Amino acid sequence: MSSPLAEIPVASSERSRDYRRKKKKKAQVQSRDQHHSEPYNAKWKSESQQKLYSSKLVQALSQVRLGGTAAPPRGRTVREAADRALAFVAKGRTRWSRAMLMNRVKLRFRKQRRPGSASVMAALTGSSRSKKPKVRVLRLKGKNLPAVQKKVKVLGRLIPGCRKEPLPVILEEASDYIAALEMQVRAMSALARLLSSAGSSSSSGIDRISDPSPNV
Amino acid sequence: MSSRRSHSRQSGSSRITEDQIADLVSKLQRLIPELRNRHSDKVSASKVLQETCNYIRSLHKEVDDLSERLSELLASLETDSDQAAIIRSLLM
Q1: Which among B21, B56, B82 has the least Cβ separation from residue A167?
Q2: What residues does B15 pair with on adjacent strands?
Q3: Is A42 within 8 Å of chain B by CB?
Q4: ipTM above 0.90, yes or no
Q5: Chain-centre distance of CA A143, in angstroms?
Q6: Contact criterion met (CB below 8 Å) for B84 and B77
Q7: pLDDT of residue A134
Q8: How far apart are CA A202 and CA A193, in angstroms?
């Protein structure tokens, strides 16, 4: 009876060594693939990215409170602040993030003057990548159907800044946008949990501490 | 030599092949939780696009709901309790 127990630690250590070796190899291969095939998931699922976004979000929310009117911020304002923070964290490398940042800048500029959108975008992204490469799609078997084309148009309207883009661009933007939205949901729900738990414990916990019941 | 030049131009970013599109569609499919379980061959591009639209819409709605909730919670911070003051000083 003791023999299987004695075997187990040895076997587990060997297995763990092999597992670690395999995991390292897999991680290396995966990191090479991830660099090309799945950069979105790795980028938006990392904890550092979420922490960065959360701090940016809190900063934006505080600006909303101080800079706005005396009335409490509405849901719309919070949503816009969250989107701005999201687009900022995306560093303007995708079309949707640039479009989100542009929406705000456009509103501000329309009041004063009207510079060329290309120069503004270059200032925002820090690079003069405003010219779009011409993309031609050849031989789409079955993808020229009107049903698919209609869905592609709907998808292009959902993602900011992708209304007139061709199919492969929309698909790529969609992957990044979905991953970014998931991270936004995660960060905002964590913040909401934090605030609600702190708020609910205020009446029960702190009051009890601050007002000790007189027990003479 | 002209054939080599046209071949190099084809491999550039100006022409997208169907394989690349199929690759993008499958990558998108892997991101959507509804379609992740199914085998990739059985899902058509139209279905992937439809589910993508639905998923993006649901994510938008979730963000809107969370924004409403956060605005309510932030409004509750306006009260003058000690706890609220602590949170306010932490956040801002």
Answers
A1: B21
A2: A136
A3: no
A4: no
A5: 29
A6: yes
A7: 42
A8: 14
Structural contact between residues A97 and A91, judged by C-beta atoms closer than 8 angstroms? yes
Q: Note down pLDDT in tens along chain B; length 92 residues.
A: 554 444 444 444 546 677 888 888 888 888 888 777 766 567 788 888 898 999 999 999 999 998 888 888 877 776 657 777 777 777 66
Average pLDDT for A144-169: 84
Identify the residue with better confidence: A48 or B53: B53
Residue among A79, A134, A143 minimizing CB distance to B21 = A143
Sole residue written with tokens 């592609």: A152
| Higher-confidence position of A71 and B26 | B26
DSSP codes joined into one string, chain B: -HHHHHHHHHHSTTEE-HHHHHHHHHHHHHHSTTTSSS-GGGS-HHHHHHHHHHHHHHHHHHHHHHHHHHHHHHHHTTS--HHHHHHHHHH-
Q: What domains does chain B contain, in order, with CATH numbers?
A: 3-91 (4.10.280)
CA dihedral A30→A36→A41→A47, nearest 10 degrees, is 70
Q: Decide if A158 and B84 are in contact by the 8 Å CB cutoff.
A: no
Sign of the torsion formed by the C-alpha atoms of B80, B83, B89 and B91: negative
